[in-house]
Amino acid sequence: MDIFDRSQHLYVSSDFDAIIKDTIRFFNGTPVHSIPIPKRFSGTGVYALYCIAQSGMYSKFHKINRTAFNMPIYIGKAVPKGWRQARQLSSIDSRSYELYNRLYEHSYSINIAEGLEISDFFCRFMILEGRESDLIGTVEAALIRKYQPIWNTLIDGFGNHDPGKGRYQQAKSDWDVCHPGRPWAEKCQGIPANQENLFQSIENFLNNLDDEKQP
To answer: Does this UniProt record's set of keywords contain Nuclease (predicted)?
Structure first.
């Protein structure tokens, strides 16, 4: 009979923390841009959105981010085509624009949403391609754990896509309840969360933010 020894299955790397700290350090040093970014660029990787609204429900972000972009409102990733099936681009001449496209999609969502102004939003991003693209999911998760962005942890659904015909029986996301505007979300027929309760959750979240939080 086999004897089970958990320690023989446990992988631990002394280099892992150093790699993650280095990626976060690099990420926080990348330039900040308004959205949508005017110049199309190739690449995949990880990105963050920042809000500097002076009024409205997210006005506290202006105080936090007024001198430096310290607190993201959302963190996401853009992976290469075929990433989940471990496929690579078939040609070295092929270019991937997933990161640019993802930021453009988010710009559109914000632009048509109630209660948001596109001029209040900025982004920074880190391009990870080639072998480094294997780090995309890990870096995204590390950044979300570090910053706990409100649109990742409390108000879910900002990064959602149109579920498509035949799948509209689901409820619209919390984000779409708070910020109506995406046409496909209005087709969702399920029972959504209460908007007033979500607004109260946002207020409570922001009231608990440390104004001096540093990256």
So the answer is: yes
Tens digit of each residue's pLDDT (9 = 90 or more) over 131-165: 898 899 999 999 999 999 999 999 999 999 998 88
Residues in the chain: 215
pTM of the model: 0.90
Say whether 11 sits in a helix, a strand or coil: coil
- What is the distance between the alpha carbons of residues 43 and 100, in angstroms, rounded to a whole number? 8
- Residue 81: which residues within 8 A CB-CB, separation 6 or more? 87, 89, 96, 98
Could you tell me the two tokens for 203?
């207020």
Distances in Å between the Cα of 95 and the Cα atoms of 1, 40, 51 are: 53, 12, 30
Could you give the CA distance from residue 51 to residue 46 in angstroms, rounded to a whole number? Answer: 17
Contact 146, 138 (CB under 8 A): no
